Fold this protein.
Amino acid sequence: MHISEGVLPGWMLITGWGLTAAGTAIGLKKLDNSKIPAAALLAAAFFVASLIHVPLGPTSVHLVMNGLVGLLTGWVAFPILLVGLFLQAVLFQFGGITVLGVNTFNMAFPAVVAYYICRKLLKSSSTASIVLSGIVAAFIAIVGSGLFVAAELYLTGEQFTKVAELVIIAHLPVAVVESVINVFVLLFIKKVFPELLEVNYAAS
Amino acid sequence: MWEHTLVVGTEKVETKLSDGNSLLHTLDARVKVAVCTLFAFTCALSSSLSFLTLTGVFLLFFTIVYLKNKLKDIAYSLLFADSFLFFIVLTTAITYNKGEIIKLGFIPIYIEGVKYGAFLFFKSNIILLTVIVFMSTSTIFEIAHALHHLKVPSKLVQMLFFTFRYLEVIKGEYNRLLKAATARGFKPKTDLRTYKTYAYIVANLLIRSYIRADRIYKAMLCRGFKGEFPVYKHFKLKKEDIRFATISFTFLVAAFLWSLVWKF
């Protein structure tokens, strides 16, 4: 979920940019020159994946897939999501420039956490551990970013307490859908093109 | 909103506003990015209604003079692009818990909450308008080039460039995958089969983009790529650019001082 322009207080916008800058710096430092096109096309693929609206009962939710970005790329998730969200802000006025730091951090930091927790599971060859890593990554990434959004709204002022609660509730069904999708994506990749799970973005 | 822009397979994924040859389109992208950042951040940090209104008037002047045939698109993306904002404005109106209440059937509406929501909506739209006027009138390639000159790390600029360049290609790939699924009788529903189909489409998208990226990199190496892009079009500051930067900056300072002295 993107936070809109003009809602958060200045100190939070600046902190958000600071954290995103730090995360992006780590990601870029790790990213090998030869893997820039791969990271960029992955960003494009995730941009397109986020256009997919998956039906859920009477409504639909759109895919976020930040957990999967995290699983595949680790710290490089920061520059990937930064570029994706920047394009959404300039092309569609979705999110915005001043909140870009906060929004990127909200999505990328849980993704990096998911990477560190799940990367061992993903290396194993058993189906069960891949299923588990998909579910865990989706929950950490989606619920984690939901919690960040809620905490930021909560800290902004008491008028947003109710909104913050609703935000957390709204993220739960998304996490469930996303974990199902994540599991099938990972199983498919494992079967068809397992190299993708082992790509090292740090060196060629 | 973005769905509209992207779903059309053959149409270019580019801001609708970036084609044109008005003053706003021909200004140096470096100046525009710098002015845009300055305006957006001062507006975001300000909670003064008079300052925001003055800035809004300044931006509206540019919009009406230079983007008058795009007014409908701009209004549409301002009003409807942001569902999160609507969500926030609605919930604050109902749950503000302070001040007077009007009952609308069962639903309590807090006057203070509505006022606060309206202010947020206004502020948010002023910042969005800044980005529309100063940034969406440049192509992404110009912005990437400008960011490079403004000392944004080269790897990040290259990523931005590639991502945008291949957005359309990957979107085309997705359309083909979806068409193939539809041809085999795929109808999205809330069931495991639908989720599985979407998951396989996403997985295919990821695999194909990785393989494509590999080919791209090899092709670049064949053409002597050494870690940076040569640029054919160089920026050169013109008189108009300096005039535009000076006027914008002076206006910002004046509006700031004015709103300190003269609150309304």
